[in-house]
Amino acid sequence: MLSHAQLRRGQRVLDLATGTGLFAVAAGRVVGSAPGSVLSLDISPGMVDLARRNVKTSGLRNIEVRQADVESTDLPPAAYDLITASAALPYMYCPGAALARWRRWLRPNGRLVMNTFKVRCSS
User: Which residues of the chain carry a pLDDT beneath 50?
Assistant: First the structure.
């Protein structure tokens, strides 16, 4: 996912469902400090704790980790150059509404990069 993100110095990144924050740390190294930054969100208190520890261990100061539900949290419109979401979409209650919300947070020409899995059902 990191290679598809095509990160550049100075970008503002929003990492949704950050988990342990590994992508956030990798992104933080590339985008640098102001105006570059990474905001990482996760609904799980345990994942937020792990992500905060990983960010602290990295020594980076351009990453903020918050506990938030990415389907209902409010963020400023057109604030991010890149939004990432790794394996998050299948867990959304309303994926279409989540994608619409996330799009509002993107700057013009911003990008959403995500990966997901497919559940196969047997018939």
Answer: none
